[in-house]
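The protein record quoted in full:
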Amino acid sequence: MRAFLLIFFASLCVPAGALAQISDIQAILQENRALIEESSRRSIEPAIAAIAESGLPSAQTVLQRWQAKELYQTPDDGLFYYGAALENGMIRLFRFSDGAQLGDFDSASLARINPNSGIRALIGSALVRFQLDDPDPQRRRDALASLQRNPAAEHLAPLRASLAGETDPEIRALKTRVAALLTLRYDPDTQARITAISSLGADISLDVRAALNPLLASELVVVEGEIPATANVARELVPGRGAFTVESAYQILVDNGLAAPRLTPEFLRAALEQNLSDGMVADVPSAALADPDARLKAYDGLAAAGLVPARLTDDMIGATIAQYSFFENYLEPSGAVTDAVTEALGAIEFRVGMNKALDLTLDALSLASILFLAAIGLAITFGVMGVINMAHGEFIMMGAYTGYVVQLFISNYTLSIIVALPAAFLVTFAAGVAMERLVIRWLYNRPLETLLATFGVSIALQQLAKNIFGTQARPLTAPGWLDGAWIVNDVLSISYIRIAIFGLALMLLAVFLFIMKRTRLGLETRAVTQNARMAASMGINTDRVNMLTFGLGSGIAGLAGVAIGLFAKVTSELGNDYIVQSFMTVVVGGVGNIWGALAGATMIGFFQKSVEWLNPSNTLAAQTYMIIFIIIFIQFRPRGIVALRGRAAGD
């Protein structure tokens, strides 16, 4: 009673206009009081609609406070207010009309209206009409998102009305798009729907296709005689043509009660048993009924006597079917609308196909950049120097682990990657130089011994990595700005990590070309590659060139390891996943040519992704087909795509 008296005396101080406003909104709330107090998802819609459609300025406030669980009721008189919880456990009440404070009240003296999630969703839909013109741009975006999730015919008019006053170009474009989606579903004007459908013909989003496809839903219709001129025919069905058999057509007539059922084995057996008398069925001995023809003869005898329905012949079935027309009829009655939808979906499917092809191209280029990144170091050691380095994959692994170790000391992921790239190059460069000095230099021009020696080094490096880092995968975390993907539309997207790797591959290609074409080391390397004895006679230190070249190839493999570790598991076996593909890339592209490695990576990437696109459920099959393709390709081009020319080719 104390709370009621405080509210009563506070209301005496309110101007007459405000009292009228309170009376108006409270009248609506009181009319729907029972529904609000019940708070049932099944029965609350009339109350929400009454508030939303009242046209009162305070209607939006009521709905927002109700949705936020800030709607309170005084038990004594049943009036509704909104309140804010205070730290001392009291509730501060406010009027809906002007937001004036009524005072602080004990929460135990008030009844709080707690809408469930279903009711809050309904309130959210009702608030859309208010939020479409809200000054806050984010609220307008939220309202449009709500419209897309829960479209309704009553939202179309307020959405169109909000377009004129929309000042944000991005939100205006979104409103126009959502209005077109609602128009094609709910607008009774056929021309308006056709215009909306035509405007969406260039949009390949899933929600647009989801809105257009139901308009082409059809049902099978059977009519006696010719197809009505008013029918919106999707497809005429001719019995006996294609998959629509005569048996299917007649069964449809039977299911619709338009024809008598055909004689089934069960019905035949029951009819014969029912009419069996003295060992005979219509002058046919029961002993002869094991013969199918005898059973049919007996049944025909019963039919002639009028004891069972006559058996249908194929001619009778054909004559019955000929009396009817079968067709698939659009559920949408307007032929102009379905024609517009068909045309729009055709344009959309074409665009979807083009975007899928572009997406496949991006995937292939992404895989090609990874293969090239893994193979560019091998292109130097194997392609230029002729050294079969089976430990190349372990240099990739060492680069990835270097990045992991750097991140242990530098918590900033962006800075750690910046530091890890040169660190990985230096570590693997040093390891490559050490390997060349200790192992490779003694085995030049002895390929089998080189293969065995580097294979042993590979096993040793793997075991060393297991002893240091363990067998569990170690994280090499990408910076936050590499998270996610560049999404062009619902079909076309590529992750930012793949884009970064593509850029790194191009950068390494440019660096390699600069070293080989513009530096003394590159000049000496090319001279030693073409003719080591002649280069030595010209004063070039071939041992030093071989050492630095092998170190360069190993260092680039370390850079590749950092990039690959950003999306692959960093383990001691990381290199095993790339050593075979690296060799295939170099051999297919052309040994001794960096452009050949690039061409080989591109060809393998496109071939593998194409096979995966044809058979997406089995990526192992794609790799198998790729190996078979490479074997066949080498039979016709044993020197690869870009073959060496001159004396280097002869070597």
About this structure: The longest strand covers residues 218-224. The chain is about 60% helix and 10% strand.
